[in-house]
Amino acid sequence: MSNTENHNAPSRSDDCPARPEKPVTQRLPARVTVLGENMTIRRALPHQQRRMIGAWCFLDHAGPVDVGEGSGMRVGPHPHTGLQTFTWMVDGEIFHRDSLGYEQLIRPGQVNLMTAGRGISHSEESPAERSPTLQAAQLWIALPFEQRDIEPAFEHYPELPQHAQDGVICTLLVGEALGKKAPTHVYSPLVGIDLRAHSKAETQLPLQTDFEYGLLVLTGDIEVEGEPLAPGELLYLGQNRDALHIRFPAAAQVLLIGGEPFAEDILLWWNFIGRSQEDIVRYTQWWNREEHFGTVKGYDGARLPAPELPAGVRLTPR
Ligand code: MN
After folding, report:
1. d(CA 130, ligand 1 centre) in Å
2. CB under 5 Å of ion ligand 1: residues
3. Which CATH superfamily does the domain covering 21-259 fall into?
4. C-alpha span between 177 and 163 (Å, rounded)
5. Mean pLDDT by 10-residue block, N- to C-terminus, for the chain (318 residues)?
């Protein structure tokens, strides 16, 4: 997915309030924005009051939306650097193409993990033959400094480990928890768990005290440590919790993300992560000149143009 918001201020990881080293409950309302050509989504990260949770630095929730009519999702070729894009398919299908030549359909219960590293470009679209409802979460994971320029890669995970407890199905998307280990290849201490209850349920999850956590409801309503939570709000939970009590009054699906607080300052602008303004300018120039990021073959549409650079940042003459 691609960041196509109109305002083009860069998001700095260091302009956010310090991470509390204690449990908190901070409500972060997601904002509604348009993804690609036509899809309205809710963006929970980055947020003005919370740029990152561990290395998780971006969180979009698309749908559930009816894609039976019209063109469905269409996100034309666009570049990424310095991050991994992580797609968790809840309902429906998305077709991925990238500049390494990968073409991959992702279905419910599957994960696509694209490592941008030094640079990659990709497109995402609804396939012609598709389910009527689309719902997905896409997250970005910042790569640590040492790995920021690694070779790009793409991995598709058709199955993720599951653990059932108290009527809640826990799918381990990233990291280790609940006696399970996810196969997804990440570069910093992280966890991601999808929690799904098909009817009323109540459970307690063990947490790591050195991780910070956040919780996003995908569908339904829940109670977390007694606090009600509904779709459209990310609940930041802070650090130093060893357990989390979640109550499902009825069917609901929730995404829990966490990680060791990311120790580095990063600069996130458009679809790029860099360490300096110079990095961002260089990546933008490469994309505008159709250099460096390769070619996405087979997408029937235009590549996405980079937005204007923030005020005061100038592209140097060629
Ligand atoms: Mn993308």
Report:
1. 21
2. 1-2
3. Jelly Rolls (2.60.120.10)
4. 10
5. 60 56 90 85 95 98 92 95 98 98 98 98 97 97 98 98 98 98 98 98 98 98 96 96 98 98 95 96 96 97 92 60
